[in-house]
Specification:
This protein is mostly helical and 292 residues long. The chain is 71% helix and 4% strand. The chain has 15 helices and 3 strands. Strand 2 and strand 3 form a beta hairpin. The longest helix has 27 residues.
């Protein structure tokens, strides 16, 4: 950190941007300096409002960093590069069991092939590992490599991989859904899954976070759930069967709004909480009309 602070000291950047650079560079002075320079060029006025957009997409990595990452990856076989690209949708760390299932279930690869490719990545230093037995975890060498590989995937492939990961995780957490609901929700949303499916897991994730008094996190998942309930209601057809489904979704929306309003109120945002509670009253009125 001291070396990085020295390198970027001459570039006036907001503190949140400096912190972002530290996290993304992960101790690499070259990456830190290049990121700092790219931020300063993208946001010459470097205030809180102009600096933020510069960090939105990692596909806008400085050419020097992208070239360095590509050079590192070029030393690996094509199959190893593809496996790592697929693994990038799992984030900076992933379990062997998950990547094994993703690769074996949808290709001609067997477990030994997956292990050989992971060993290749380990020997090159692109991955590190920890754990033993069936609980081995792999970690990417550099956070910027994860985002670079992720952005190298087509939008269609990214969505497919996210849905594939969600399906595997749903099976893995079948008897303990609450534990995996947050991760499953992430992959369902990123994969463009059906709204009803997203609502189910986002609600479970929100309820779990709420029970743990993690109110900002609970708020985030309740918002995801409410947005997707609205999507379901927006395309509902006026039939008897759909009326019953609408009542169920309106009841679900009322529950979500009540929980969302409570999370917002607890965090001290009383004005927004009031607006959410007003929406809740409207939903309950609509539900009573349906029932009557």
């Amino acid at each position: 950190d001291a070396a990085i602070n020295t390198l970027i000291a001459g570039i006036q950047l907001p503190e949140h941007v400096v912190q972002d650079i530290r996290e993304r560079a992960a101790g690499n002075p070259f990456f830190a300096e290049e990121l700092a320079y790219s931020y300063s060029v993208a946001s010459p006025s470097t205030n809180e409002h102009t600096a933020q957009p510069a960090r939105k997409k990692s596909s806008s990595l400085p050419h020097s960093i992208a070239a360095a990452l590509d050079q590192r990856m070029s030393k690996l076989s094509r199959d190893c590069q593809q496996l790592l690209g697929n693994a990038a949708i799992l984030g900076g760390s992933f379990e062997f069991s998950l990547i094994r299932s993703m690769e074996i279930n949808n290709s001609a690869s067997d477990e030994d092939t997956v292990l050989d490719l992971l060993d290749e990545a380990l020997q090159s230093g692109v991955l590190t590992e920890e754990g033993r037995g069936a609980r081995v975890n792999y970690h990417f060498w550099q956070p910027l490599l994860v985002s670079h590989l992720y952005d190298g995937l087509s939008a269609t492939r990214r969505a497919l991989l996210h849905r594939r990961a969600a399906d595997i995780l749903r099976q893995s957490y079948a008897n303990r859904e609450a534990e995996g609901a947050a991760t499953i929700t992430h992959h369902l949303v990123a994969g463009g899954a059906e709204p009803q499916q997203i609502v189910r897991y986002a609600t479970i994730a929100g309820d779990r976070a709420y029970a743990l008094s993690a109110y900002p996190e609970a708020e985030r998942y309740y918002r995801i759930a409410t947005e997707n309930v609205r999507s379901v209601l927006a395309v509902s057809q006026p039939t008897i069967a759909h009326d019953a489904i609408d009542q169920e979704n309106q009841a679900r929306m009322a529950h979500l709004l009540e929980q969302l309003g409570e999370c917002i109120r607890i965090q001290g945002n009383y004005e927004e909480a009031r607006r959410v509670y007003e929406q809740l009253l409207q939903e309950r009125s609509a539900l009573q009309v349906h029932v009557s």
